[in-house]
Write a structure and sequence with these properties.
By secondary structure, the chain is mainly β. It has eleven helices and 52 strands.
């Protein structure tokens, strides 16, 4: 009886429990949401039960109703433009949403200090690292290509991204390397390649200071902009472990097809007939009949070579793999934080035997004492990497290789012999295999240590010491081979120490509506570089374990040199704000450089800027429903540039037996080494300066759904430093550095962003663009008509973009013999030989003659427009993003010299020559040559190898740069797995290109290391 009663009681309790659960699962919560700004209903706001996918949205009156799992559930209220809130669910709840002013309060790291984004009066772009975090690369800058208006990044497929360069608002100097921006990593300044300093996984934020006002705090180092990088540090109260890993496959892609060996023979027969009145050639490789037929031949070393077709791209290029692993350990407390990062990158190259391996480790810590009035910290990274490089010119060499030339002869030796039509281009694989034993090994220690003291409220005194130590060891080995029986070895070591010590005092104070921030600082930096190298030949053993200089038996030579540079600077900055509406900023910096004479080594660089937050004015109150922020900015400033050789100011002499020997004792035979003057000092050498004016507008609409930033700038560079050429009559020591040129850069930049969501679907579209114009406005009188390609008489680079092409204008191809006859009767042809299928040159100066005086300026490959479009969306755990970048510009396609002009090169050519062959065969029956490619010939009688418009093409393109699909595990699953976050993704890069350019890749002109198409799988998880 008791057992039955107990059973009934348990059954009733179970039913009651189930009933409670059912009732809890069906708890209905109703409420209303309004805006704190105007008490109006917030329509379309997402109401989500936290840690679930159960969600709804508010209606036209701001009302919502949602069934939650239990009465103690937490609801999350989120909407663009408002601060997200998490509140305990209660029926009839009324939720007040406050506008999200985080964007206005966002802190941006500028020169030696941080400022609120809303208070900025200069032109500063902030990179959202989440947009590029998934991109596998050895150089974080390569992933920013097309994403920052005003920043033009060029890169190629070199492993590790070591061949990545950056321009901010165009080129501002004649000198290579003198137009690159300054990088500041946690306060340490450098111009080194970032691939050797930092991993993208270590970066918290990137700010690009573009105008003089924002960058002038760095004075003489900021003429080309400043890129500030802040690394990741542990946050207060967090203990985290984060692991990132990715695996990438890289595939070779090409923009044009090359002839195979049989097609080459057909093209050759047609070209020979054109140049020799229908006669057919005689070839050891292709025979001597009416049609070509490949046959075995004997190389110059007397060894038989079997006839076959060789695809040299397949020989040199490969599918390559890249692996990237990163572990981040961080812990933050009330009194300090510590972060340790380990990163390993293994990047195999498309070109066989090329590789980049890098191991990075970074330790960052900071500690607080005396109730946070004393802070000390350090951030130090140790980087070790190795490289196996491609042979110089290997990518051009691949194009040049004849398809009938084999890799090996019948005995297994490299086939390098010059034979008949095969040409004398070195065997590409032999050259590249030589590289695999050439070791390049590097160490770098990079970081800083600081101490901060806050003796009184709002006064911060900081001392920061940064170090950049670099050590490089190289071994270049060239083994002997059939045509050169002398092996060669070069070894070198480079040691470089670069340190900077910065001391600043920062004080801010408010008086009612007035706000002041002042900065004073002094900075000292020093650079030292030492190089030693040795060379020798005839090593008895060619085993890689014995490839050292002590094994050479002849030709021993040694070299060594050192270079030093220092700069001392003082600077100050004052920011003023009245009522958060009227903003003023002034900066002044004095730099003294060891690269200039004592009379001209110091210069002062000032800047001024102002801002007006119009949206804060009383007369704008009626716009608050649709306008969040409207700010006008204006700035002016001067920056300097002293990027020239460290010894440029001094007289230089070379002690040499070869070039400056003397018979001092008069015996007529004994020579003593003498001194040869190689450069003369210029005591008047002074600073190169860039003055920049910037006008900008920042606006935000519809509760931050739509954001816009617009800038117009004008840069004027004067007294450019140049080592100009000199005439031979000057004699010894004629080289010297001068101030000898002026250049203008002007342009317009814009960033437009729209972001919104529909229930669980979030989406964003961001477009940025930049329009540029570069003009050389001045040159020294003695080089006015010669520098940069002028004709030495009456045509100057002045008025043209820097890097402009100087050559012949063309008017297509001669299609008929009647056109040829008319042309010859109209002009006195002194240059070229007109004929059907030949390039038609234009009488540019109108004197009735076709000669070298018709050369003129043909433009440049400077971008006229650069743009980027980022489209992203997410639904629950899934996310998808597509990034397009593009450019409008002209391009000089120098590969046409090999691919489209048979007479200029005996190696391989483009399959476009098949079109030219068919067109001429058709001409022989129709009298009309219908092709844009010049007719095939073996004689360059029309000078078609000369620079002309024939080589200039539309180099514009649109490229789907990255395509990423990701999935983030839901919180419920993360909880079960004891993970904080977890995400997996698939990504493709360089997916497709839309262009009319006929070269390999409009993004990478010339013969650079090819950009691969990549496919990546990655994962990131933390706990």
């Amino acid at each position: 009886m008791q057992k039955k009663s107990l059973f009934r009681m348990c059954t009733v309790m179970a039913l009651l429990f189930v009933s409670l659960v059912v009732n809890a699962q069906e708890t209905l919560i109703k409420g209303n949401v309004i805006s704190a700004t105007d008490n109006e209903a917030v329509i379309g706001l997402t109401v989500r039960e936290k840690s679930t996918r159960n969600a709804t949205v508010t209606d036209m009156d701001g009302n919502f109703s949602i069934k939650v799992s239990n009465a103690d559930a937490t609801l999350e209220f989120s909407y663009i433009g408002f601060v997200t809130q998490s509140l305990r669910a209660s029926n009839g709840m009324k939720v007040i949403m406050r506008e999200n002013t985080q964007a206005l309060k966002e802190v941006v790291v500028t020169g030696y200090m941080s400022e609120k984004k809303a208070d900025l009066t200069g032109s500063v772009s902030v990179v959202k690292m989440k947009d590029v975090a998934d991109i596998p690369t050895g150089n974080v800058l390569s992933s920013l290509q097309g994403r920052v208006p005003g920043m033009n990044i060029t890169t190629d497929g070199t492993p590790g991204g070591t061949n990545t360069s950056t321009l901010v608002r165009g080129r501002s100097s004649f000198r290579d390397g003198a137009s690159s921006p300054l990088y500041v990593i946690d306060g340490v300044m450098t111009r080194e390649n970032l691939s050797s300093i930092i991993s993208a996984n270590d970066i918290e934020s990137i700010q690009v200071l573009k105008d003089a006002a924002s960058a002038s705090i760095y004075g003489a180092q900021a003429a080309n902009g400043v890129i500030i990088i802040t690394t990741k540090h542990a946050k207060k109260g967090e203990t985290r472990v984060t692991v990132d890993a990715s695996l990438t496959a890289q595939k070779y892609t090409s923009g044009f097809n090359m002839l195979n060996a049989d097609e080459w023979g057909q093209v050759y027969w047609q070209a020979y007939k054109y140049a020799n009145n229908g006669a057919t050639p005689s070839s050891e490789v292709y025979g001597n009949g009416n049609t070509p037929k490949m046959q075995d031949y004997v190389g110059l070393n007397g060894i038989k070579v079997n006839a076959q077709d060789t695809n040299w791209r397949d020989v040199i290029y490969q599918t390559a793999w890249m692996q990237n692993y990163n572990i981040n350990l961080s812990k933050g407390t009330d009194t300090g934080s510590t972060t340790l990062t380990l990163n390993f990158l293994d990047h195999k190259g498309l070109v066989k035997f090329t590789e980049f391996k890098r191991f990075n480790t970074r330790l960052a810590s900071d500690y607080k004492f005396l109730n946070n009035h004393l802070r000390i910290g350090e951030n130090i990274s140790v980087n070790y990497w190795t490289q196996t490089l491609q042979d110089g010119g290997i990518n051009e060499n691949v194009i040049k290789q004849h398809p009938a030339k084999t890799v090996y002869d019948s005995m297994g030796n490299y086939n390098d012999a010059i034979s008949d039509v095969l040409g004398d281009t070195p065997n590409a694989l032999r050259l590249q295999e030589n590289q695999k034993n050439n070791n390049h090994e590097y160490w770098r220690v990079f970081g800083n240590a600081y101490i901060e003291i806050e003796p009184i409220k709002n006064l911060l005194i900081r001392s920061n010491f940064g170090i950049n130590y670099y050590n490089e060891n190289n071994k270049l080995w060239e083994p002997k081979w059939s045509r050169d029986q002398v092996n060669k070895l070069t070894q070198s070591q480079v040691r470089q120490t670069d340190w900077v010590w910065t001391n600043t005092a920062n004080y801010n104070v408010d008086f009612g509506k007035n706000s002041f921030t002042g900065l004073l600082g002094v900075e000292t930096k020093k650079y030292a570089n030492k190089t030693e190298s040795g060379y020798g030949t005839n090593l008895a053993i060619e085993d890689k374990n014995y490839l050292y200089l002590d094994a050479v038996t002849s030709g021993q030579t040694v070299n060594g040199n050192a270079s030093y540079y220092s700069m001392v600077s003082v600077f100050g900055k004052l920011n003023y704000s009245y009522d958060e509406k009227y903003l003023l900023s002034a900066t002044v910096r004095r730099d003294a450089s060891s690269r200039l004479s004592k009379d001209n080594d110091a210069e002062v660089f000032p800047s001024f800027s102002a801002g007006w937050r119009i949206s804060k004015e009383n007369f704008m109150k009626n716009t608050t429903s649709w306008l969040d922020e409207l700010k006008l900015r204006a700035s002016w400033g001067i920056n300097g540039n002293d990027i020239i050789p460290n010894d440029a100011f001094y007289n230089k002499y070379l002690v040499s037996l070869k070039d400056a020997s003397y018979n001092i004792n008069g015996d007529g035979s004994t020579l003593a080494a003498g001194a040869l003057k190689t450069r003369s000092a210029n005591p008047d050498l002074t600073w190169e300066t860039t003055t920049q004016t910037n006008l900008g507008l920042d606006a935000s609409f519809l509760r931050s759904r739509f954001n816009a930033s617009l800038d117009y700038f004008y840069k004027k560079t004067k007294n450019m430093l140049v080592e100009r050429p000199y005439i031979a009559v000057i004699g010894e020591g004629g080289y010297a550095w001068y101030n000898g040129g002026d250049m203008d850069n002007k342009g317009f930049e814009a960033t437009l962003t729209w972001r919104d969501h529909v229930k669980d679907f979030n989406y964003e579209a961001s477009f940025n663009m930049a329009i540029y114009k570069n003009t050389v406005t001045g040159l020294s009188q003695d080089i006015y008509y010669t520098y940069g390609g002028g004709n030495g008489v009456d045509k100057s680079l002045v008025g043209q973009p820097f890097g402009s092409w100087f050559g012949y204008k063309t008017d297509g191809i001669f299609h008929t013999q009647a056109e040829v006859n008319e042309y010859k009767s109209k002009y006195d042809v002194q240059f070229g030989a007109p004929g059907v299928g030949r390039i038609k040159y234009v009488d540019a100066n109108g004197d009735g003659k076709i000669n070298t005086n018709d050369r003129t300026w043909l433009g440049s490959d400077n971008p006229k427009f650069i743009g980027g479009l980022n489209l992203s969306c997410s639904y629950k755990g899934f996310d998808l993003s597509m990034f397009f970048n593009g450019m409008i510009r002209d391009a000089y396609n120098n590969s046409k010299y090999y691919t489209d002009l048979f007479q200029c090169w005996t190696g391989n050519h483009s399959t476009r020559l098949l079109d030219a062959m068919k067109a001429y065969q058709s001409f022989e029956s129709t009298g009309y040559y219908d092709c844009k490619v010049p007719a095939l010939t073996t004689l360059n009688s029309n000078n078609e190898d000369q620079l002309s418009e024939f080589y200039i093409e539309n180099g514009s393109y649109i490229k789907l740069k990255t395509l990423t699909l990701g999935y983030t595990l839901p919180q419920t699953l993360l909880n079960k797995l004891s993970l904080r976050t977890a995400r997996v993704y698939l990504q493709a890069q360089n997916v497709f290109t839309i262009t009319g350019y006929t070269g390999a890749d409009p993004e990478v002109l010339g013969y650079s290391y090819p950009l691969p198409r990549t496919y990546s799988f990655g994962m990131s998880f933390g706990f």
